[in-house]
Amino acid sequence: MRFTSLVIELIRARPRLVVWIVVLLQAAMWLFVALVFYRSPPGNLATLLAFGREYQVGTGLGPPLAFWLADIAYRAAGSHMIGVYVLAELCEIATFIALYHLARAVVGTQQAVLAVLLTMTVLAFSSPALDFGPMVLARPLWALLLLHSWQLIGQRRGNAWFAWSIAAGLLLLTTPAAIGLLLLLVIFAVATEGGRRTLRALDPIYALVVVAVLALPYAIWLMRAETLTMPALPQVEDLKARAINTTWLFGGLVLGAAAIPVLTFLNTSWFAGKTEDAPIIYRPPVEPLARNFVYFFALAPGLAAVLISGLFGLDRVAGGAGVVLVMSGLAVIVAAGDLIAMRRARVLRTVWAAAVAAPAAGVVLAVLLMPWTGTGEISTSMPARAISDFFDDSFARRTNQRLRAVAGETQLASLIALHSGRPHLLIDAEPQRTPWFTPARFSETGGVVVWRASDTAGTPPPEIAKRFPGIVPEVPRAFEWLVNGRQPLLRIGWAIVRPKGS
């Protein structure tokens, strides 16, 4: 009697259900990690929220859409980070659902599930899950843009132009890399007969008008801010270092997609039993235009981003690895052929689940074990709520006014800016980055200046003492980490700048 795995049967009979189950389980896994093991936001998320609460049309960090959405989610959740974490996972879900619909149009419903499963292993290692920002928001917008582009070029669905223009406009409001991504779409459309046929209509003109209207406010800000300048090209003596940086960036992309060749190798006939009758996942033949579309957007964005980032000395891939690798899983499925034999399904399931869960497991192990080694600190283990409450209450008791601004070390100041009162953030080392609150205004309204305390007296670092002459340091405040282990307590030096007239 032949036995077929229940998962394989579900892929055959209910492919959409399988996609929703695995995507929602991954989102639930990361939300569980955040609720249990995160006491402060990961990465630069706290700073992003401090920028977002100002609702600027543009900042030095880039287009504004991700900052606005993060602040809206934070306020909607009652000034709790869970709102932003849910927003990040909604972006993750939207990315995979858009990819599933694109893959279904190219390789059919059954193999579309395999494309999503492979892509989940890639994004798990190559892009942040909870550190919401432009790179996270750009993933679903780019996936939607690819879906609508294929509907226009491959399926000749003229009614997709409006959705395409909305996705393109929002992508321009999300990441500076949007211009390059849109240029790649234009190149593919011009280079193929199907694309040229699509561009001959009047609809593209109307779509460009919609895109221009959406991006116009940010474009005006760019022109007024005089930031529309090309980065300086490297000098001849810098070319070797830039080439090494390019190699490292390319290696990072390859490493992020490492689970795909592992799963492919385990599914070869070398590991199949002699008597094994492997179930087959079938698809209709893929037309040449669809094959070219998938291969082009699986390779071109990554190669272009690596070359640009390496040339200009960027420390990460332009646009984000999660954006440029979003088509990698579908490209492997297209190359695999019309019939994909699922050999040793149990082993494949185990390896796939390990690849998807490994980043979350790594976060948990780091939080629990690293404090005992004393080799470093985990930023997400900082007690953000206790820190913000203490300094907000201290300022209110000393001045009988609410805290309006915070300055000093940006990481600590950003955590205090998360308080429900939402004081303004002043990056005093680079005040041009926070034009909404100048040092002069800080001296008028007063605020709190914070830094990492290096002694029991709380002596401020020389650069902070220079920027805030006359401040009187208070006794440093010690805070416990989520797991203290062998590392010392988090000691924060601080001083109050009193409001004028108080």
Automatic annotation (TrEMBL):
**Residue stretches spanning the membrane:** 17-38, 82-100, 112-130, 161-192, 204-223, 248-272, 293-314, 320-340, 352-372
Q: Which domain of life is it from?
A: Bacteria
What keywords are annotated for this sequence in UniProt? Answer: Cell membrane, Glycosyltransferase, Membrane, Transferase, Transmembrane, Transmembrane helix
Q: Which residues form a coiled coil?
A: none
Question: Localized where?
Answer: Cell membrane
Where does the record place the Glycosyltransferase RgtA/B/C/D-like domain?
Answer: 63-221
Which membrane topology describes this protein?
Multi-pass membrane protein
Instruction: Note the Pfam families from the entry.
Output: PMT_2 (PF13231)
Entry-linked PANTHER family:
BLL5595 PROTEIN (PTHR33908:SF9), MANNOSYLTRANSFERASE YKCB-RELATED (PTHR33908)
Q: What is this protein called?
A: Glycosyltransferase RgtA/B/C/D-like domain-containing protein
Q: What species is given as this protein's source?
A: Bradyrhizobium iriomotense
